[in-house]
Every structure is written in C-alpha cells, then in structure tokens.
Task: inverse folding
C-alpha cells in the first residue's frame, strides 16, 4: 500500500514550524485567501493582492548567512507529487529571479524538505541548519 502524499498546506505547516525552530523571520502571502464576499475580493485587489506571488518570504540576515550576504528567499510550496505551477506563479518567480541581485531568490519547492534545503543553502552550518 502506497503512503498518501501530504497536501501542500501540510508541507507548508511543517516548513513554517521548522522556520520558527531555527529562528528566521518569515511571513506567508495570502494569495489563496478564499472568500465569497465581493467586497473583500475587491478590497484585496485594491490593496494590492496579486495572484501567483510565492507562498512565503523568508529572510536570512547577513549574520546567519554562509557568505555574510543577507537574502530574501521566496519559496513557492507544492506537494511532493502532483501540484502544478501556474503561469502567473512562473511569471512571479521569473520576475523575482530577474531582479539582477543574488540577494533575492524564488524557487518552487516540492515538499517541506526541498524548502528546508533551499533555506539551508544560505545558512551558516550549525544547529540551525542541521535538518
């Protein structure tokens, strides 16, 4: 019997718990906020919410970075299997990576482990990056 593949939300919850454990500053982006309220949808649009931006923004400060360069990492979470990247998500990832600075990087992460590996690429070795 094959094991069930965790949902994207479950993968992101586990990743968020790991980010809290290692003490990094981060926030999620409420692109998938669902509401039946037309006034709320309108407010979301007028206040600048655009579909497709990566799910999270993770800051790696210079003091925690391997090379001493602070980073803003933008993981787009997907399930380990399944889960597709939409055209607008691809556009946002390309736009972020096209800024011309190594300090900003966006990437699709299939599962919590890929997301942790993404962040660990930039963290100094130590207790915070052993997972």
Result:
């Amino acid at each position: 019997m094959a094991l069930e593949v965790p949902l994207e939300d479950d993968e992101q919850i586990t990743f968020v718990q790991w980010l809290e454990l290692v003490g990094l500053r981060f926030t999620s982006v409420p692109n998938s906020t669902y509401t039946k309220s037309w006034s709320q949808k309108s407010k979301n649009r007028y206040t600048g919410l655009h579909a497709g931006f990566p799910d999270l923004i993770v800051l790696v400060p210079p003091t925690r970075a391997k090379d001493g360069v602070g980073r803003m990492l933008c993981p787009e979470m997907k399930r380990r299997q399944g889960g597709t990247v939409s055209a607008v998500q691809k556009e946002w990832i390309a736009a972020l990576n096209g800024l011309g600075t190594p300090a900003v990087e966006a990437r699709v992460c299939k599962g919590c482990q890929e997301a942790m590996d993404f962040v660990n690429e930039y963290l100094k070795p130590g207790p915070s990056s052993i997972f």
